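hiii so um. not sure if this is the right channel but i have a protein structure encoded as tokens and i wanna go backwards to a sequence. like what aa goes where. can anyone help
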């Protein structure tokens, strides 16, 4: 049984008298100890999906339909008390900016102890010992000293380590990390990613890493979901997606990486920009920016099909597979059509 199962999730934002779709028919599963990534440009719906999983979508956003199950228990219908048992204890979240999570007027130790004591009935002394142990676990030097310091006294990388320590306090089953290294320099980014990877491996914690950078994703995630305009457009093993991307959008994201450009040349970029919720194109949402778009792409919503070990929503790939089947019907059983 899957640890987490998201099925046909639709999230809308009510703007004046208009209901705008932010997530459309999103489905995926997560197994215990598995590490997956959700990638895409800003506005693709990655963070909305992360917040939806723990039901933290605030007004004007709301879950319109669909299912989110943790150990086969429906999260979308839980009341606040039930959700508080899930948040932090079963599913923990790491945000982009640690200063948005840490209270600037409370010491690090005070905040960590409060997290523990809000969920368990243990003494302050025991909670302090656990907090210091977790600070040591995330490789913070002199954790006893850091325990009494305030967030502004720590570097950005150190603050992010404190956040990771805080999510470990209650031994969660899943960590959702929303762009956890965006504000850090490259060296610290690598250290934080290695730390997350080690924690997941050592403790069997499942990870959902939200990122816009496929280079970052390749170092951590076993499986990747590529999102565009609120929909998953490609899903598969991370190495397969990086080495053989199927969807034109995934190809564009990879080509835009700095290492894909020769020194002294302009960086590659995907022409155009992510459409706002109020101006979602008909048919395939990516067609205004796609170099391979046809008239059919403007009218027809692509369905998910299996292409190799990945699944992709693209009419071009669908047509290529159809032609392959017609030319070589003996092999057609090897190409299965997936449904969401």
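sure thing!! here u go:
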């Amino acid at each position: 049984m899957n640890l987490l199962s998201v099925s046909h999730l639709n999230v809308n934002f009510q703007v004046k008298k208009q209901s705008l779709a932010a997530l459309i028919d999103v489905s995926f599963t997560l197994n215990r100890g598995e590490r997956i990534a959700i990638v895409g440009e800003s506005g693709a719906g990655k963070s909305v999906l992360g917040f939806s999983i723990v039901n933290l979508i605030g007004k004007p956003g709301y879950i319109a339909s669909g299912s989110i199950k943790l150990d086969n228990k429906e999260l979308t219908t839980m009341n606040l008390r039930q959700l508080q048992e899930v948040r932090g204890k079963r599913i923990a979240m790491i945000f982009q900016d640690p200063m948005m999570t840490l209270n600037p007027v409370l010491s690090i130790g005070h905040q960590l102890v409060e997290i523990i004591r809000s969920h368990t009935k243990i003494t302050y002394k025991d909670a302090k010992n656990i907090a210091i142990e977790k600070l040591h676990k995330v490789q913070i030097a002199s954790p006893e000293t850091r325990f009494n310091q305030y967030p502004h006294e720590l570097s950005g990388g150190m603050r992010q380590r404190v956040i990771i320590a805080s999510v470990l306090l209650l031994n969660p089953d899943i960590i959702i990390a929303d762009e956890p290294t965006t504000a850090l320099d490259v060296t610290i980014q690598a250290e934080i990613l290695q730390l997350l990877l080690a924690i997941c491996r050592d403790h069997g914690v499942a990870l959902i890493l939200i990122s816009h950078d496929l280079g970052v994703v390749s170092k951590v995630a076993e499986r990747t979901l590529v999102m565009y305009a609120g929909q998953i457009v490609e899903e598969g093993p991370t190495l397969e997606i990086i080495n053989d991307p199927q969807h034109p959008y995934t190809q564009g994201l990879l080509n835009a990486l700095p290492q894909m450009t020769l020194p002294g040349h302009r960086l590659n970029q995907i022409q155009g920009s992510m459409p706002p919720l109020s101006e979602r194109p008909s048919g395939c949402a990516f067609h205004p920016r796609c170099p391979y778009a046809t008239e059919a792409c403007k009218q027809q919503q692509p369905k998910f099909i299996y292409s190799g070990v990945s699944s992709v929503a693209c009419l071009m790939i669908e047509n290529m597979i159809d032609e392959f089947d017609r030319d070589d019907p003996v092999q057609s059983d090897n190409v299965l059509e997936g449904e969401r």
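oh and The chain has a mean pLDDT of 90.
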